[in-house]
Amino acid sequence: MEEETERFSCSKLLIPKGEPIFVKATWFPTHFHLAVTDGITAWHCHPSAEEVKQRAAQWDLPVSEYLNLSERYLGLQQPGSVYAFDDAGDSHKRLSWTFEKEGMTLLWRWKCLLSPDSKKSNVEILDFLMGSNINLSDKVVTENELFEKMKVEAEKCLTQSERIANERLEFESEIYAKFLGVLNSKKSKLRVLRDKLSKQENSEKSPEEEDTDKTESFDEENDFERSDEDPQKDITSSSKEVMANKPSHPKRIRHK
Amino acid sequence: MEDVTERFSCSKLLVPKGEPIFVKATWFPTHFHLAVTDGITAWHCHPSEEEVKQRAAQWDLPVSEYLNLSERYLGLQQPGSVYALDDAGDGHKRLSWTFEKEGMTLLWRWKCLLSPDSKKSNVEILDFLMGSNINLSDKVVRENELFEKMKVEAEKCLTQSERIANERLEFESEIYAKFLGVLNSKKSKLRELRDKLAKPENTEKSPEEEDTDKTESFDEESDFDRSDEDPQKDISSSSKDVMANKPSCPKRTRRK
């Protein structure tokens, strides 16, 4: 047998010039069931698929649309619609509501038969509401757990972002220090060679004083741009561009 | 008047040798109210604070503990406890359940008076359950919205982490290229000076061939550790340390 999908709804309807009623409905693909109670007496409405088809045809609607419309108006009382629960003889009732369509007022109306056992029907309605409460409570717990889990993920990601940003800063410091070492080594060699060259020149020509290059401290900005250096043809990008790529720290996520 | 906090519960209790009953309770700091229905007939139990105090004293419990215990056993049927709704004459009932304490079976029991208007009482219970359903539905929606919001935050943070990691790689490439430029500049000067030194030596001594230093491509690893370089006293950390600090890219968060 094909698995039938069904939906449930339960609503409280305020009836003008009457007391409230509670309507529990089961919505099937081709028909529906209603259970109605005023708190003491209960009624049922179990039309056949054929009956529903005829009613839908009267409204020029496909069955699915007719059922969706019915569910909307019985699942929650709609403003602008007039609901009624009138006597239909022999303790039966007629449940109705109005629906405006293309300037015309249509009346949705179905007969509800007195339940042979109101107590049993009322218990079923109460049972349904209890079950629905339990399901929804479980759902709240589940959704909350999902939220907390995602929150943990977000915090974890934030922590990682900050760690990466910190590592970036550490790396920059280390790489500059490293480069400073290499640069100073080269400069030392330059000084050694210049000294040798000076000696030779002094032997052959009149002595010429030359300032000694001192070992420099590496300055991230200045050392690359120092004007007293020879043009550096091999430079591929400016240090300003490098610095401009530094990311700002991510803002911490806070949950109120 | 002091703001009184109260809690609500509603449960279905299966009573042996009887039909199910529904118990709606309101828990106040010093007393409680019960509304009971079997689907048709309803009862009320509205003890005074003094009455509750006396019952708690009989069980050697402070009032708050007595109420918590009562709420636990009436808010949800407890396995191992025997529940009953016995006749108490004149249409009234006596609601009870059992409680094991230190090897002794205690009986919680309160008289429930027949409601003067069962229909009204039943409607109130149905109303409460409907309201609870609506509140829980709203809560589910809210929790889901919180989850979706946090999910967006997590995805945003993940994207930012990846961007930062990418920027880190780009920075490394750029800074190495930059260093390469500066380093090559120094090496050019070294070659220049060596050439100058070589010429006069040729004039004075027998010629001595010397390999020309070619401009090197900068290799992140080997250029710092090349064995043919003179010892580099200024190096502050090894390149292995630098490389070891490279972070792995954060794993992407996925939700099933």
UniProtKB/TrEMBL annotation, chain A:
Record bears the keyword DNA damage: yes
Principal localisation: nucleus
Region of interest called Disordered, as start-end residue ranges on this chain: 197-256
A Pfam family reported for this protein in Swiss-Prot or TrEMBL: XRCC4
Domain of life: Eukaryota
A Gene Ontology molecular function term of the record: DNA binding
Comp. bias regions, Basic and acidic residues: 197-206
Protein name, entry field: XRCC4 N-terminal domain-containing protein
Gene: LOC100798519
TrEMBL record, chain B:
Intracellular or extracellular location(s): Nucleus
Stretches for region Disordered: 194-256
UniProt feature, compositional bias: Basic and acidic residues: 194-206
GO molecular function, one term: DNA binding
GO biological process: DNA recombination; double-strand break repair via nonhomologous end joining; response to X-ray
Gene3D superfamilies linked: 1.20.5.370, DNA double-strand break repair and VJ recombination XRCC4, N-terminal
Domain XRCC4 N-terminal: 20-114
GO cellular component, one term: DNA ligase IV complex
Keywords: DNA damage, DNA repair, Nucleus
Matches recorded under Pfam families: XRCC4
Source domain of life: Eukaryota
SUPFAM superfamilies from the UniProt entry: XRCC4, C-terminal oligomerization domain
Biased composition annotated in UniProt, kind: Acidic residues: 207-228
Keyword presence, DNA repair: yes
Alphabetical list of PANTHER family matching this protein: DNA REPAIR PROTEIN XRCC4 (PTHR28559:SF1)
The protein's name: XRCC4 N-terminal domain-containing protein
Species name: Glycine max
Top-level taxonomy: Eukaryota, Viridiplantae, Streptophyta, Embryophyta, Tracheophyta
